[in-house]
Amino acid sequence: SESEAECLIKLFDVLVERSCSQFAVSGFNRTVFRDTLFAAFGMTDDVVLDRVFSTFDRDNNGCITVVEWVEGLAILLRGTLEEKIKYCFAVYDLNGDGYISREEMFQMLKDTVIKQPTDEDPDEAIKDLVEIDYDHDGKLSFADFEQAVKDENLLLEAFGPCLPDIK
């Protein structure tokens, strides 16, 4: 809504004021971004936070502008399932080639799965999660990822340390 966007812009202005970077006129840097997501959403995974930053920083200049901030948070906080699927896919596609390889999936999920109390071997749990390659080409395309999430909505949460907790 308009009032929510205004609140995000006000928060952006506060963050820019606190930023002691070369971008302080137009935005804020990775450190301010990471600190903010940690404080607001409890996001702690360094790899995930770096990927979320890269997803927000669409022009890849190392600075989050007000437009990138508002549009990025709009997806995180109020995005449709389709928008969140696209966002999560972009976060997990580490090299930006349009696919999530088994290695990328393993790297992104390893710490998350290991932190969960379970009797299952973490490596086996990760192998189960990467078996959503519907076209069996050895890599996860956006279509594979989208279909897997639509088949099982809870799967988005399994890929979700890059999404804020529902509360």
Automatic annotation (TrEMBL):
Q: What's the short name of a Pfam family annotated to this entry?
A: EF-hand_7
Q: What is the species listed in this Swiss-Prot or TrEMBL entry?
A: Tyrannus savana (Fork-tailed flycatcher)
Q: Which SUPFAM superfamilies match?
A: EF-hand
Q: Which UniProt keywords apply?
A: Calcium, Metal-binding, Repeat
Q: Among its keywords, does the record have Repeat?
A: yes
Q: PANTHER family from the entry?
A: CALAXIN, CALCIUM BINDING PROTEINS
Q: Does this entry carry the keyword Metal-binding? A: yes
User: PROSITE patterns, alphabetically?
Assistant: EF_HAND_1, EF_HAND_2
Q: What is the lineage of its organism?
A: Eukaryota, Metazoa, Chordata, Craniata, Vertebrata
The UniProt entry, under SMART domains, shows: EFh
Q: Molecular function terms in GO for this entry?
A: calcium ion binding
Where the record annotates domain EF-hand, the positions are 44-79, 80-115, 120-155
Name of the protein this chain belongs to: EFCB1 protein
